[in-house]
């Protein structure tokens, strides 16, 4: 027999199964197949004759796309099982660490806000890079692409918060990927773009563009990683929602837990942005040291 806490879980599971039947057209047999149990076993669970196994609840969370805490809310016995689960502990530590890193690094949670802060920092670096036209122009290219990226993502942040995660991902990830590819190509061809941009400037200014640029190759490598993360997010979003692409849900359900990039996308991008800022600031230090050495 089930304890009072377990009966609460049973009631919650019954509601979830009813919702799966209503929204997705699942039959009882279909639900049992996805949970990996027999129909009689499910009846025993729902009638309170036996207690749910943790593995069954994990599968139900993957199918319904609810967290385990939402399913077993208020059940102390299952809470203890979850707390002792090493996987659960590691995931919680990683999640809290990621959230803390965002707070410390940018003190903002919205993508528009941290990109705006990124532009402000880049603007400061731009004005400090007057001694190196090449570094300054690369910084300018990143500023321009980031401003465009902010403009493209504003409608998403204003109007798409109530859409499903799948739909949101289909909009926001391609935007970031497109702009990161544009930035990567711009950095790669910065000398050509700079010559066009500075075509009315004196020859000495143009010659300065062809001096050694310490950040060109590292910045290209960094933005290649930006593009890889964006592409991985797009691919993961599709794999996690294969049933929307017409794939049988019994096969698609095994990929429901593929959400690492989805969960930590903002944290990864913030870390890459911090690397970009660090690289640009380091370049300023190198330029300053080089100038001092030349003077001495």
Automatic annotation (TrEMBL):
It holds the Pfam family HTH_3. Keywords: Membrane, Transmembrane, Transmembrane helix. Gene3D superfamilies: lambda repressor-like DNA-binding domains. Residues 17-71 form the HTH cro/C1-type domain. The keyword Magnesium does not apply. One of its GO terms (molecular function) is DNA binding. The chain crosses the membrane at residues 100-128, 140-159, 171-193, 214-235, 264-287. This is Helix-turn-helix transcriptional regulator. It comes from Pseudoalteromonas xiamenensis. The lineage of its organism: Bacteria, Pseudomonadati, Pseudomonadota, Gammaproteobacteria, Alteromonadales.
